[in-house]
């Protein structure tokens, strides 16, 4: 496509999405569930053909010399397809939040005023490599009564096209407009530029991918963006605390998995418990090969631990999201210094205090300016499913509209509804 | 100031606001109320000096040849100052919503998960002429635990400076940081450009003023904007309806005041009641000198009304926000055409149906995509105070974050709080 054609093509997708969104907004819960169940059935019935389309992407990626982990992320195995089908069925059985009415109260004038939950309208999702995001985004869009325009990575284009065909068939089978979910069929880079700058057709953009991509999109978007930047999460071991609990939870927050955004990257320890706590957690980290980047005080204690890999922390370490077996460690005077350090260096994603002190717990909850603040548990719990949201659009590191794990509600807005009996304003 | 100095000055204001916002976020309800009461007392104690500073603005405006209504809007009369003081006292007595915890529920893992309402942080408000906005914005900012940077119109700079001094004194008297409310002291136009592009110090921008100003700010802002564009509101008279109610409510929606954004600019009438309804409302409009811009069918009926000012509507009339004694009138087949017309031409601000039909009422509420949708009452009720919000930041015509009348909640976000007993993720 040339530049003019891309602009026109994206404009057409936008118009079609906007039109489809009106029908989706008034679709019944039964219609949406029926589309989701049809999609699950179609996924299961088309495992072979999906794999053959997926093979084209794999082949091209391998030929282009992509690394093994990158090629791996492209793969649509029968197991992954089954997981996607189960996900659609689970969404189908979840309660429908559209049309929910809250807070209806009579006002002095006599009118009754409340709010009704309605879809946002149209969202655009921009993602890289993994083709399963096509189904995840499509199913969340259907369940929330929105329309969406999906832009996947060029390396997965054949897989994404095949998956999008199934989504559109499922919508049609349920009597819903197939344009409610549209995949951008061109891999032209300019398409993204248009998608993020059509406020008349797209209400919000949800990017998923590397920090560079997300920062660029946020900078250039002409519509709101629900975004996740980075997760520099902290665990603060307070004085007083339950030492056994602190060791178990800190270990989990750092080592249960190194790659997730909610793993702890920084450990703060109150001076009063440092001598008792640090050797214990140091031994755990040493056994698991976790490198500790320490301030002078923590380093002095941890260097006494057998086999500990202790390095001197630089200023940069306090802001770092390692996503690796590395943790920064610092001894602080107490709760004040811990809160100040976290509010300065944290990415405002998730931070936890491990404490027995009620006042400290309350202050931490109130004063730490992060999307999730926790007491006596692992930062690894910051997750839409663990929070009981039933589905997760993403984790927002912004404060506006949606903060932290975003469920289906993040794709909705509340409009005001007013019921009267002929009242007039005087 | 030269350009470099303006940039540096705004950057300093931003840093100071960000610092003050942390203290404001943890301020107690009592401290915030004390600041608001101190401000009310200071306003009352300084009526004379406020008027003398205000006189400088009035004099300059008059000399510059501003129109009488524009000069009027600049005036700080003793009555206006008293109203501002009473407003501060009312806010002081309102419940404090900061720290509120909602939805705390235990999850299968054992952790309890809920949400806590916290301030957004720092907002920037950009407004024109009326200096009372300085006090309204400052008091809402204090009550909601935010910090703010206020940029008023250059024509009111002396009045704004005098008011801002009182606000800062009130904050200091209550033991809160005076930088929690800062007025931009330079009238340099570049200051606005910086204010809307400092995501590190300003979380949201709230512009108040003409549509041109608001559109420009929305286009150029690098942070979210809570904005109000226009109010092309509709009243739809359905078949069947209570005719007496319909006449009373339609009259109120159009003529109670012509200038507010929630006045009805468009009247849609179901064909089945047009012959009965239009002559009655036509007589009311004729008596009040309201011009009717009609489609052919409505025009044919209304031209029979004595003294009626009936004009032919153009396509442009359906989108017009008159803010004047003019209304567009169209006969529609029924509920379907009414909803389609509104969703096409409305500014998505406020639209009402007047009906006896339950199914039509439910469909209107669900399908009309506007910030406020009403049944059997006047669009003029779309207002934060009438909705029981106790205070109004503004009326948002967006769907994201805040929609329709925005109360103090619009200046807050919900963060997740998680309480555990040593749970770890497996």
TrEMBL record, chains A, B:
Chief location of this protein within or outside the cell: cytoplasm
Record-level Gene Ontology MF annotations: glutamate-5-semialdehyde dehydrogenase activity
Cellular compartment(s): Cytoplasm
Keywords noted in UniProt: Amino-acid biosynthesis, Cytoplasm, NADP, Oxidoreductase, Proline biosynthesis
EC id: 1.2.1.41
Keyword Hydrolase: no
Domain Aldehyde dehydrogenase positions: 16-316, 318-383
Highest taxon above the source species: Bacteria
InterPro entries, sorted: Ald_DH/histidinol_DH, Ald_DH_C, Ald_DH_N, Aldehyde_DH_dom, G-glutamylP_reductase_CS, Glu-5-SA_DH, GPR_dom
PROSITE patterns according to UniProt: PROA
Major enzyme class: oxidoreductase
Gene3D superfamilies: Aldehyde Dehydrogenase, Chain A, domain 1 (3.40.605.10), Aldehyde Dehydrogenase, Chain A, domain 2 (3.40.309.10)
Reactions it catalyzes: L-glutamate 5-semialdehyde + phosphate + NADP(+) = L-glutamyl 5-phosphate + NADPH + H(+)
Pathway terms, separated by semicolons: Amino-acid biosynthesis; L-proline biosynthesis; L-glutamate 5-semialdehyde from L-glutamate: step 2/2
Keyword NADP: yes
Main function: Catalyzes the NADPH-dependent reduction of L-glutamate 5-phosphate into L-glutamate 5-semialdehyde and phosphate. The product spontaneously undergoes cyclization to form 1-pyrroline-5-carboxylate.
Family label: Belongs to the gamma-glutamyl phosphate reductase family.
Protein name from the UniProt record: Gamma-glutamyl phosphate reductase
Protein source organism: Ramlibacter alkalitolerans
């Amino acid at each position: 496509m040339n530049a003019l054609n891309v602009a026109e093509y994206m404009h057409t997708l936008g118009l079609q999405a906007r039109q489809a969104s009106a029908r989706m907004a008034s679709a019944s819960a039964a219609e949406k569930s029926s589309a989701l169940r049809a999609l699950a059935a179609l996924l299961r019935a088309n495992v072979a053909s999906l794999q053959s389309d997926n093979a084209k992407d794999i082949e091209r990626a391998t030929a282009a010399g992509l690394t093994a982990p990158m090629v791996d992320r492209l793969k649509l195995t029968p197991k992954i397809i089954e997981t996607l089908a189960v996900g659609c069925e689970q969404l189908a059985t979840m309660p429908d939040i559209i049309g929910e009415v809250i807070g209806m109260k009579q006002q002095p004038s006599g009118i009754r005023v409340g709010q009704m939950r309605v879809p946002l309208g149209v969202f655009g999702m921009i993602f890289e490599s993994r083709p399963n995001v096509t189904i995840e985004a499509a199913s969340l869009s259907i369940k929330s009564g929105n329309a969406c325009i999906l832009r996947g990575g060029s390396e997965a284009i054949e897989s994404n096209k095949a998956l999008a065909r199934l989504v559109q068939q499922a919508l049609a089978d349920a009597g819903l407009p197939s344009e409610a979910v549209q995949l951008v069929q061109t891999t032209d880079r300019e398409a993204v530029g248009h998608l993020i700058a059509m406020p008349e057709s797209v209400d919000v953009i949800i990017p998923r991918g590397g920090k560079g991509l997300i920062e660029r999109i946020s900078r250039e978007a002409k519509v709101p963006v629900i975004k996740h930047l980075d997760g520099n999460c902290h665990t603060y071991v307070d004085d007083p605390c339950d030492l056994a609990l602190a060791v178990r939870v800190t270990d989990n927050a750092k080592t249960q998995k190194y790659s997730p955004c909610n793993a702890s990257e920084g450990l703060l320890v109150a001076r009063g418990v440092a001598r008792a706590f640090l050797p214990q957690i140091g031994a755990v980290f040493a056994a698991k090969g976790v490198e500790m980047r320490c301030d002078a005080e923590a380093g002095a204690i941890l260097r006494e631990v057998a086999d500990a890999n202790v390095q001197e922390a630089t200023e940069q370490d306090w802001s770092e999201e390692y996503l690796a077996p590395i943790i920064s460690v610092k001894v602080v005077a107490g709760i004040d210094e811990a809160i100040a350090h976290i509010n300065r260096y944290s990415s405002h994603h998730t931070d936890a205090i491990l404490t027995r002190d009620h006042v400290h717990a309350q202050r931490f909850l109130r004063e730490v300016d992060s999307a999730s603040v926790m007491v006596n548990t692992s930062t690894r719990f910051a997750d839409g499913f663990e929070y009981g949201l039933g589905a997760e659009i993403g984790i927002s590191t912004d404060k506006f509209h949606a903060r932290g794990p975003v469920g289906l509600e993040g794709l909705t807005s509340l409009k005001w509804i007013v019921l009267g009996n002929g009242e007039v304003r005087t």
